[in-house]
Amino acid sequence: MTISIAVVGLGLMGRRMLSALSRQDEFVCRTVWDLDVEQTAKIAGQGSFQAADSWQSILQDDGIEAVYIATPPASHGSYARQALAAGKPVFVEKPLTVDLADGESLVQAAQDSGLPVVVNFPFATMPGLARMVREVQSGEAGALLRADIQLHFSQWPRTWHNAGEWLSGPKEGGFLREVFSHFAYLTQGLLGPMRLQSGTIGHGSGQTESWAQAHYQAADIPVFLSAGAAGAAPDFNRWTLYCGNRSYRVEDWSKVQISDGSRWYDLMPEAGESHGLDKQLTEWAKALRGESHGLATALEGCQVMRCVEALVASR
Fold this sequence. Notes:
Elements lengths: L2 E6 L3 H10 L5 E7 L3 H10 L3 E2 L3 H5 L6 E4 L6 H10 L4 E4 L6 H14 L3 E4 L8 H10 L5 E10 L21 H17 L2 E10 L5 E10 L2 E9 L6 E8 L3 E5 L3 E5 L4 E3 L10 H12 L7 E2 H15 L3
Parallel strand pairs: 1-2, 1-4, 2-3, 4-5, 5-6, 7-10
Antiparallel strand pairs: 6-15, 7-11, 8-9, 9-10, 11-12, 12-13, 13-14
Helix pairs in contact: 4-5, 5-9, 7-9
């Protein structure tokens, strides 16, 4: 049965979601809406979507079964809670919110409603993750030694963002919230909650961080972050988990490797594994049917936010 949804927020991620929805049989986008009236009309005209007159009209439309939210982060909590109150499950972009009390309120609202709230962390469905989890939890990987997270951006915001001033502002933006949060989610899923031990953030001419160094602990396992923006080098990201018998590495979002100490080998996907929004939507459909799914929950999104905002606050 096809699930009818509304896409709220028509910036980069909202448009990417519409593209992914066009490749799916389990969903149909009934309605689109953005605070920018011209953008709403433009996107609606490009597809067979209704242009909602207002956010309230979406809440009152019984034909809309679920809502995808891709608005700026500070508004996520309010939109999501209102959708839940209207009986509509939610798929929200990360970060869950940018205020811890707001995030915890959303977690409580999700629990009270009994409706699924999932957060878009693509690493949740990353090919190779299931094997990593198995080998770490079984002890096959050996002793867990440390995790390293390295991020570099030639500039921030990146040229392709084109997503408004909020990305470069201290209230909602910065690469810690936008990018480090993904790797915090990946790390916490394998090692447990990360607690900030020490952190330092630098600021350039912009309002958000220009570099960051941090030491976290996940139980007794150290996690180190080194990140920065600006510098004549290509953008890159690298996450490495060092273990006694095998180590694991993720580079540039989707290159997953394993090492036995001699060299790094590409980790091949297992049966049924795939990456990207198409897989996320397959998992969302499971969540909406009340089935077991692989997406991040509101509680997991809040745990990531707690980890990231602790470092942001050290500014």
